[in-house]
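Have a think about this chain, C-alpha cells included, and walk me through the fold.
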Amino acid sequence: MTTVVPTSEEDPALSVVRFTAEMSWAEAGPEVAEPQVTSLCMEAQECMIAGRWLDLASLMITSADLVFSKASEKDLECIFTVICNLVKKPESLDESLEISKLISTKIAQQPNEKPSLRLKILFNLYNMLESPYGRFLVYMKALEVAANGKVMDHIIPSFKNTDTLLKEWNLGLQDQRQLFLSISNILKEHKSSTKENLKFLTKYLATFSGDDAHDINEAKEEAAYTIIEFVKAPDMFQCDLLEMPAVAQLEKDSKYALVFELLKIFLVKRLDAYLDFYTTNSELLKSYGLVHEECISKMRLMTIVDLASNESGQISYSLIKNSLQIEEDEVESWVVKAIAAKLIDCKIDQMNQVIRVSRYSERVFGVSQWEALRTKLTTWRGNVANVITTIQANKVAEEGTQTMQGLMIR
C-alpha cells in the first residue's frame, strides 16, 4: 500500500483528497474513476481558495471514511493527521470548533472498526485544538469510542487528570454531569475499582441542587445505584451522600425509599437497626445483590466507630459484645479489624476490659463535621499563638536578665 507523503508540489490536503478518491474508485475502472477523482480534487481546490475550511473538512472526512476499512493504519493515521490539521486553518474559533465536531463525530460513528486507531486520531485532534470547550467535546467522543469499541484501558489512565482538565475546560453543570456519568459508566463496564467508580458517581450526584426539581429527577437511579455500591464495598466506611439533594429525594420516593433508609442505617445507626431492617426487607436486599453476612460484618465495624465517637473515649468490652452481638472472646478480634481498616486508633486494656480510643473516623462528613473541624482548628490556632507568645516573652525576659548580669559584672 502506498503511503501518503505530502510534497512541495501539492498541498497535503489535496494529496489526501486525491489518494482517498483514487482508493474509493479503484474498482470502477479508469474511465469512471478518473473523472470522479478530478471532480473531487477540483472541489477541494475551490474550498481551499475560498477559505471554506468546514466544507473542505466535510469533503475530506467523507472520502476518508469510505477507505477506513481498506487503507493501512499507517496510511489512515497520516490521512487523518492532515484532516485534523484543518482546525488550525480558520481565523474564527467558532468555525474551528465546528470542524472539530464534524471530525470527532465521524470518527466515533463506527467504534468497533479499528477502535485504538480512532482513539489515537481523536487525541491527535484534541492536541491541535486551541478551544478548551472544543477539547472537552473531543474528549467526550473519545470516551464514547473507548466504551463502544471496548478499548477502555487506553483512556482510563486519563481519569486521574480530571480535576486539572475541569479547570482547563471551565464546564457548566450539564457538561460536568455528562462527563462524570460517562466516566462512571466506563469504570462500571470495565469492572474497575469500586472506589474510583463511586468517586465519579458522587461527583455526578453533587452537581444537582434542590432547586432544579426537573433535572434532579433524572438522578434517582444513579443515586440508588451509588447507595447500593457503597453498602456492598467492604472497605468503604465514609461518604457524603446523605446530605446531597439528589440522594435525599429518595427518602420520599415510592421505589427507592427503603434504599435511602438502608443508607441511613449504614451511616448513622448501629447493627441492631440493620438487623431489624433485614427482618422485613430480606428479599429487597437479595434483589440488589447484597449478601447478609457481608452487611453484618460491615455494620459491626460501623458500630465500633459509632461507639468510639462517645466523648469519654473509652468503650467497655461488654458494650462492644452486646452492640456487635458477638461472643466475649471475639471482642478483641473485631477491635483489631477496626484498627486494620483505619477506622480507629486505640489501646486495648485487657486488665480493665476496655479499649481507650485516641482517634476515630467520621462515618458522615457533612456541615456539622466541618463546623466541628473549624472549631478544633480555631482552638489549635489559639493554642499555638499562646505558645508563641509565651516563648517570645520568655526570650525577652532572658535577654533582659543577661543584659543586667553584664552591667553588674562591669
